[in-house]
């Protein structure tokens, strides 16, 4: 009987120990996310972006780099998915031409972000950072095509451009800078 109680006590202690260790690992990972986000240009966006993905708390710096690039790939693909409907709603030649250029810019960006993902996965962080920058510039070029010539307008994917160039790219660059500095 005493032996049976000892096993129960050991089992309870083991469960508590595992729970305690997993909380400490999660807190350490959360601290890494906080440290990354404190160095980014938009702490609030960074915390929300990583907070929206449950994997964030279990990843190291390399994993956060990969995850942040993956977020950009998803954002670029989401924007690209809008173009077929946008093209249906634009009837003028200038608008159609602008949408075609803008769609091409996003396709180029998506290609660069995928290449950055592969480079980061291979721990070629400087190359990944350059590719992310190239992709961000391609996305920004979409905005430019709407500013040249008349009529000057905002692109119909302005929110996507903002999200990618001002938010996600900055988070990626923060993580990659930390990785390069390692």
UniProtKB/TrEMBL annotation:
The keyword Transferase does not apply. Keywords: Disulfide bond, Signal. GO terms for molecular function: enzyme inhibitor activity; pectinesterase inhibitor activity. Residues 1-28 form the signal peptide. One of its GO terms (cellular component) is plant-type cell wall. Residues 28-178 form the Pectinesterase inhibitor domain. GO terms for biological process: plant-type cell wall modification. It comes from the Eukaryota. Gene3D superfamilies: Invertase/pectin methylesterase inhibitor family protein (1.20.140.40). The keyword Flavoprotein does not apply. Belongs to the PMEI family. This is Pectinesterase inhibitor domain-containing protein. It comes from Citrus sinensis. The lineage of its organism: Eukaryota, Viridiplantae, Streptophyta, Embryophyta, Tracheophyta.
């Amino acid at each position: 009987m005493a032996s049976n109680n000892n096993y129960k006590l050991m089992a309870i202690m083991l469960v508590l120990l595992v729970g305690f260790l997993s909380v400490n690992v999660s807190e350490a990972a959360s601290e890494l996310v906080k440290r990354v986000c404190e160095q980014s240009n938009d702490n609030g966006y960074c915390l929300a972006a990583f907070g929206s993905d449950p994997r964030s708390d279990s990843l190291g710096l390399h994993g956060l780099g990969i995850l942040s690039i993956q977020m950009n790939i998803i954002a670029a693909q989401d924007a690209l998915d809008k173009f077929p409907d946008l093209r249906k709603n634009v009837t003028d030649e200038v608008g159609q031409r602008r949408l075609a250029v803008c769609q091409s810019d996003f396709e180029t960006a998506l290609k660069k972000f995928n290449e950055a993902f592969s480079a980061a996965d291979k721990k070629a962080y400087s190359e990944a950072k350059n590719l992310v920058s190239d992709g961000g510039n391609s996305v920004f070029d979409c905005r430019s095509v709407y500013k040249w010539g008349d009529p000057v307008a905002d692109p119909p994917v302005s929110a996507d451009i903002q999200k990618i160039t001002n938010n996600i790219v900055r988070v990626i660059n923060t993580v990659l800078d930390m990785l390069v500095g390692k």
